[in-house]
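INFO batch 0412 | record 1 of 1 | parsing
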Amino acid sequence: MSDTGAGGDEVIHDAPGFIRVYKSGRVERFLRIDFAPPCTDAATGVSAKDITILPGAGVSARVYLPPAPAGGQQGKLPVLVFFHGGAFCLGSAFDAAAHGHANQLAARAGAIVVSVEYRLAPEHPVPALYGDAWAALQWVAAHAGGQGAEPWLTNHADFGRVHVGGESAGANIAHHAAMRAGAEELGHGVEVSSLVLIHPYFLGGDSSESDEMGMALLDELVRLWPVVCPGTSGCDDPWINPMAERAPSPGASALWYALGARTP
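INFO prediction complete | emitting tokens
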């Protein structure tokens, strides 16, 4: 789309109620982040704290630790590195909805959850946020080698059970993080054990079976993709279409795909 906003700044993408992007690089986001502070949840007993991964880049995370079983000592726990959704350009790990979701994941799975606050496009276009995801995985792996400083990981994590997951754009990010972990060494003997994708933001392929609402959403995602990934080759870009080229074989002992719908 092309339009003119205040001051003659040309609008290059407008998703009413969500985001407006200007040619100058200015971005307006209309979905308010309902910040939830880290705390110990009264209902689940899960504790949460915020940590910094890349101080200069502003990449951080919220870490969740489930409570020890009643009358028993807490054993080593699996780790889930999780990426929130938002079409690469919206959302936050610190939003109340994302916080509540991660809290429930930690409680029900009995896992340490590392919910990553990655940088958003279009200010930090794809593939920059894939680098943020890789940094988060490396941060977790460093604790297996005694180089990390987060006691919840050093004292409670089972580094033989490190999992990666995400929702919507976060699922896309998780996919690429897992593929990179299959092609490169994370370090300290850590491998990705499984991958969980919830309604991943992927494009490409046959959309003929989509209903009217699904087609409208798909059209919007197709329109948004070159905004968050300038210079893309389109819907068959391997960044957005995992079937566009053969992915490297994962080095993990088991890699599972829990695929929902193709779109968020």
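INFO post-check: The longest strand covers residues 157-167.
INFO record closed
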